[in-house]
Design a protein that fits this description.
Number of domains: 3
Radius of gyration: 33 Å
Strand content: 25-35%
Number of strands: 24
Oligomer: single chain
Structural class: alpha+beta
Strand order of the largest sheet: 15-16-17-18-20-19-21
Largest sheet: 7 strands, mixed
CATH architecture of the largest domain: 4-Layer Sandwich
Shape: globular
Length: 558
Amino acid sequence: MFVIGAQELGILAVIVFIAVMFLFLKLSRMGHVNTLEPASPNSKTTAYVFTLIQRAAIKWPIKPALLILCCFCMVTFVACGSNEDSSSPPPPESAEKYAGMYFAYPNQVGLMNILVETDTGVDDDFDHRQIHFEYDSSCNEPNWAYTYDDYNFWDNNEENGIPGKRDRRLWIIHASNLTPNCFYDVKFSYRDTWAGEWNETWGHFSAAPHTSGVDRSKLPSEMGFYAFGDTRTTGDTSALSAVAKAIMADSGKKTFILHTGDIVYDGGSPVGWYIYNDTGKYKPILDPKHDLHDNDRWLDFFTQGDVWELLRHMPMFPTLGNHDFQVTAYNGDYYDYFSGLYIGRVSSNTYNYRLYFRDSSQGSNLKDHYYLLAYGSVLIWSLTSYPMDTDIYCSVTNANFRTKAEGGTGQYDWLKESLEQHKDDLRWKIVMLHTPLYSPDSCNQSEQNPDGSYKYDAMKLKPLFEDYGVNLVLTGHEHYYARKTVNGIPYLILGGGGAGLSLPADSPCQSNPQCKGFDYVANKHHFAHFQITGEVMAVAIYGTDGKTFDQFTIDKTP
């Protein structure tokens, strides 16, 4: 864009005034004229104006007028040139982008939500944000609509409260009329001012295929997807980067990816709430003027280069992990500061999780974060393990896994009813939750009482899985890989997405992958790929080197 500065305006003014004075001089020498005949009927207005100019030129003393105007031009020129730095407007600042582009599938064929987080200077109009799609001629032209959410994690504590508003605006572009299985490129352009340069970010996604629980002809003959978990880090993102890069390098189609929880660390904190001071302790920032974008774990996740690359190629469907809503300790202690549910000595808030993954819950409470997703040839039930009643790591009593009659939260009843509704469904049935039911380490919820009953409430899920034909259970929480098959159902721990590995050094599973009754255990960062061909699912587990270290198949042929 060409911008005229103050000095250029001064020069232009001199040129204009010289031209005007030349015109006055010329007209004044023509003598007094009462009327001018127009050249045509359509030029009466022009002739009238010209007559007025000519009469003014005759009446005015030409030399004093010329002198005055020339002095005015010179003063203007000098003033503009000498004050250029102070009077010239600064160039428009570039708009900020925080998260995205990434995708959220709203559980309906033909739709896709496209999300980008910018600063609030990007207004809701065509001059500040635009969307553009590219697609094959055989695909439908998308329709779209914009909505947005401004970041507003407000804390009302009267004594120590800080405003939770931030200069952050999450755009949700609701794309519709998509052709199933078609590939779409999408560009989002944004800027803070109408005169500013456009910024842009690109993404790519495959529209969801047709799905049906009763008509096999409407299901895709082949479909693949990915899964990983526990990507949360506290600074070193090298392992997370390696996993994300390995997924993108894999040859499988980038349809979607499941996340088994703990996306980030300190996920319940408002962005930038904590800083790490010189004493080695966390402390809250109480100054609203502080740059509260600092130490934002969600921002760290979305802007990590290889994660950004992964998420702009396929939607991610998460299950809630404890670190996604918990608030870390400060001053050596856990601080019950926020008004969310209180767990042990850790306060909680799901505002950030619900903001970025808005289709992943039944409501705003911690106990409400469960959902059912239907995508092509799979049904995925995502459950929450939280809140736990007595222990923040592995709770014996857990209301999420009890019926309402037993004091449960409602999730168990919802799950049983939903499984009953899909009992004869043709699609693959997958359940996903953060805490594992079977573990070779410290959170083994399959532990039994002396009378043979299960000690942990989570094991009340097992009969539901077996009675209603669940084919696969995915979990996380523990930072390694494990697989155990129970009554034909593989239970996987996919906790090696980037967090520090956690299998104890003295565990027999370090040297023996088939330990403690497990099919396979590996203390490695990893991801899983699932390839469905009709009634057979091939599962491969990959390390960051792109090599398979465990694989198995599930055959549900009648």
